[in-house]
Amino acid sequence: MAMLEVKDLAVNYGVINAVKGVSFHINEGEIVSLIGANGAGKTTILKTISGLLKPVSGTITYEDNPIQKYKAPKIVAAGISQVPEGRHIFAGMSVRENLQMGAFLQNNRAEITNSFETVYARFPVLKERINQDAATLSGGEQQMLAMGRALMSKPKLLLLDEPSMGLAPIFINEIFEIVKAIKEQDTTVLLIEQNAKKALSIADRGYVLASGKVKMTGTGQELLANQDVQKAYLGG
Amino acid sequence: MTTLFQQLINGLSLGSIYALLALGYTMVYGIIKLINFAHGDIYMLGAFWGYYTINYWHFNFIFALLSAMVVCAASGVIIEYFAYRPLRHAPRITALITAIGVSYFLENGMSYLYGADTRDFPQVIKQVNYNLWGVRVSNIQILILVTACLLMILLQLIIKKTKMGRAMRAVSVDPDAAELVGININQTISFTFALGSSMAGAAGVLIGLYYNSIDPLMGMTPGIKAFVAAVVGGIGSVPGASLGGFLIGLLETAVQSIGLSAYKDAAVYLVLIIILLVLPSGIFGKNVKEKV
Ligand SMILES: Nc1ncnc2c1ncn2[C@@H]1O[C@H](COP(=O)(O)OP(=O)(O)OP(=O)(O)O)[C@@H](O)[C@H]1O
Ligand SMILES: [Mg+2]
Where does the ABC transporter domain lie (chain A) (predicted)? Predict the structure, then answer.
């Protein structure tokens, strides 16, 4: 049984059909990547899984429970945590406060302390800047903060929306290394990327989306080797 | 010199009441970007609650103040629930006009139920004047200043140190991100209305004590001035609202003391215009942009 099963998902913005019957699944322990051009519907799918948007039809099953009607806080409580596109860190709050917000639903102090230690170990830069206003971090640091914040809730499934967006190549490599390391520590990952080559090279499986539909699926290696995928998303 | 100190004392007493009121405007604006025009009327409700409980239930000052805060907090939550929540995703102007409607509803509702005439607020604390080096200070003024400052400190602690306070700040900065960490947006907004309205309720009881007279329309002008105070301080900024309130109070007494009583309201709006020209986002207004 898959950890997360998305079936015939359709999501609209008013009259715009952004996602038109998408199905895919994620097994526990995998990195699954969704790739596709701008406007393909990737972010929309992620927001629907995390409860910010409601589907018009279709089901999302997580650990055998239908969750498509849950509100966002209940989904976080169930163990799914999202790192949104564009980071969305809390400007005006310190790095420490941002991380603390990530553990909002956790009331056990010992657990929170433990999450802090795990996150600081994963992102040493954040530890050096605990009292700095998050808005003044560099883009790469903000991305790490957004990921750290999501990890503070100890998710079983982490949803990443374009973590490499706008970063210098050296940071991009670092982010992908971190994603791999997060998987090694038993967190399942759904990774959305424009950087299809990098994403597919660390993914167990991938899905190619185009205009709100799944066009192709396979293991990361299969998709990387596929002629059509190469032409459309890997720059020939 | 004595006149200066005298006006300072008068200005601070009045200013602390504006500050209490301005806090509600700024917090509500911060979280749902709504200028809650009905906020001044919550202050009126607080004053009436104080009037009735002191006169008929013989509440003492502390009880009257605390119960007015609770009742106003509940009113704020109810108003938000029925009037503003259904419009959460409507264009801003819709909510703004609704707020004006709520304001009229409260003003006219109270006039209808209790009459539009001015009433004498009961002197629950006997006024005593002290003379300090020629400056006249009343125990009521001291009480107002101390109560207002205590409430503002308490509010600041709630916002900075408690979980709900952090949730409020998170929702003001980024509602989507707040939801993604598990914050219940509706609950947080209700809490904000409760806090802001309780401050207005306290201000209502304090002004009753200070001016000794209340009426159903008493919230209009102070409401607008407190709104100006919030804008001057930088709308959305809590310390800004407190500072703005004191500034407006001081300005008003200063204008009055140089014999221009008739122009004290005009002076307040003049300051608003000047501040907006020089510092469009107010004294503590922030212009932080997130890096992308
Ligand atoms: N709030 C919105 N209102 C209306 N249409 C929207 C909204 N958000 C997204 N869309 C539309 O839905 C479609 C899918 O958008 P989505 O953001 O999911 O794409 P994406 O695959 O994440 O793209 P990108 O790679 O650029 O982030 C697009 O056509 C977009 O214009
Ligand atoms: Mg996107």
Answer: 4-236
